Each structure stands twice: as C-alpha cells, then as structure tokens.
Amino acid sequence: MPENHKEPFPVAGAGLGLRRGLMDELLNDPPAEIDFMEVAPENWIHVGGKLGKKFRSFTERYPFILHGLSLSIGAPSPLNEALLQDIKAFMNKHAIGYYSEHLSFCGDSGQLYDLMPIPFTGDAVEYVAARIRRAQDILERRMAVENVSYYAPTDTEMREVDFTLAVLEAADCDLLLDINNIVVNSINHRYDAREFMLAMPKDRVRYFHVAGHYVEAEDLRVDTHGDAVSDPVWDLLADAYRHFGPVPTLLERDFNFPPIAELLEEIRKVKKLQASGPIGTAAQGREARRG
Questions:
Q1: Is the separation of the CB atoms in 233 and 190 below 8 Å?
Q2: What is the CATH number of the domain that holds 186?
Q3: Are 67 and 208 in contact (CB under 8 A)?
Q4: How many domains does the chain divide into?
Q5: What is the DSSP letter of 247?
Q6: Contact (Cβ atoms closer than 8 angstroms) between residue 228 and residue 258
Q7: What per-residue confidence (pLDDT) applies to 152?
C-alpha cells in the first residue's frame, strides 16, 4: 500500500452528500457554497444511461469522495474483494481521491441494510484491522473508517473509544469522525461526547460528518439523517474545529429533504465554524452557530 498518509486531502471546506432526490434542483442551479460532494459507490457503480450522465455532470463540476455502505468490514464472511476492485475502478474512472467505510458490519452472507456494531473486543480489533489492511492493499490507497451510531452493543470488553483507537492503530488507517454519531452515542450510552472526540488522534482524522438525528426520548437518540443538524452537534463541531482545525466537513441528509436553501444555510454554518478554527474563541463559535 502506498505511504500516502502525508499527502494533502483531496477536498476542503464544506460538502454535501449527493442524493438522487436532490440532483435535479442542484443541477439546475449548482451552488457555489458546496465545495465537494460525497456518494456511496454501491449506488453508482455500473450505473449508465441518463442517470449515469447526470452523475458525470456532478463529478466534472465538484471534487468527490466516497463513503461505502456494504463492505461489511466486521462481518464473519470473507471480505468482498470484488466490490473493492469495482470501487477502485470507479474511483479511477471519475478521478475520485478518497474512500471511507463504516466501522461496523451489515450481514454475513446476506445484506441486512443496516449497520451493526462490531463487538468491542481485542480479538475483533485484530480481525477487523487485518481486513482494513487488505482493503487498502487492494485499493492501493489509504482509507478511513467511520465511528458509527449503535444501540445494543454485543460485547463491551473494551470501551467504544478504546476499541476505535485500537483499530486505527492496528490497521494503520484514517478516521472519518462523525460528530453526530458521537452525540447520539454519548446520550444513548451515557458517556462524555467531548471526551470521546478529544481522544481521537489528530494525525488520523481526515474529515468530519454532520447530520441530524431524531429525539425518541430524553435518553434515546436515533441516527436518522432526516432532520436538521441539532444544537448539541453544532456545539461539538465547534469544539472539534478548535481542537483539530478546519477539517473538511460533509453534511448528510438522506430523506425529508428541505428546500436546497436550508441545506445551504447549514453548509454556511459549517464554514463559519471552520473559520473560527483553533485560534477562535468560544464566543466566536457561538456567534457562528447563530449565523
């Protein structure tokens, strides 16, 4: 695998997850506020015809990165190397510079279409790390794994934070830090969100995700990506920029799409918080969030 972890990240600023329900409006009036886009490769590999041409019009206009859904890095089944080869070819075809996946699994020999938590154990660290290293070898690129939201852990021999750090070190891979997932998990599993965030290694954090979640109860949040970003997520994002610097940040919205103007307003909030950065003050961060 190439030693490219010191190369500049291929995107910067604030991005938006491209969803088919947003494509026509975005294509009719491409927003300058969007610095980059992200898609799940499984949704676009081998897609041709009019839809494929429409996708190409976006990749020709915006820098792209990929966020996988179904590699199932923690599954007991063999690693899907054919999918990785397809992803590699897709990245080359569209000049896409980076790929990430979820630190989870989504089935064994079948597909559950959900992200299940990997047991937080030492054995799981070794198993998952070996599969990530193999994936990076096939892709001939470094990749990132994302901290995921979960609701019923299967084994807590290790804390989530320690498991995540151990996987990153053993696999020698990067981290996609999902700020919303930290907030969701911190409430559902009763830990300090800021403490988790500050424990993540600066040299492995490549970009952030932010999204909305559903408040099921006072002590239960559901990671839906179907709502506006909440105040606790904005607050933690501001802290993250002060600690890590103006890390590239991707806004996810998967359904309940609002007018594009509302999504662009959230992207502008991201940019204001990025501008406050590590040299900004807490007051500057609060002012940016009001904007």
A1: no
A2: 3.20.20.150
A3: no
A4: 1
A5: -
A6: yes
A7: 82
How would DSSP label each residue in 14-67? EEEE--HHHHHHHHHS--TT--EEEE-GGGTTT--HHHHHHHHHHHTTS-EEEE
Task: Using the CB atoms, write b or e for 120-134: b if 16+ within 10 Å.
Answer: bbeebbebbbebbeb
| Encoded amino acid at 264, one letter | L
Note whether residue 3 is domain-resident: no
Q: CA–CA separation, 223 vs 80, rounded Å?
A: 26
Number of H helices, E strands in the chain: 10, 10
pTM: 0.91
Domain annotation covers residue 44: yes
Please give the Cα distance from 14 to 249 (Å, whole number): 5
Residue type (1 letter), 253: R
pLDDT tens figures, 54-99? 999 999 999 999 999 999 999 999 999 999 999 999 999 999 999 9
Q: What is the residue whose two structure tokens read 């041409």?
A: 53
Cα pseudo-dihedral 37, 277, 161, 195, rounded to 10:
-140
Positive or negative torsion for Cα 164, 168, 169, 174: negative
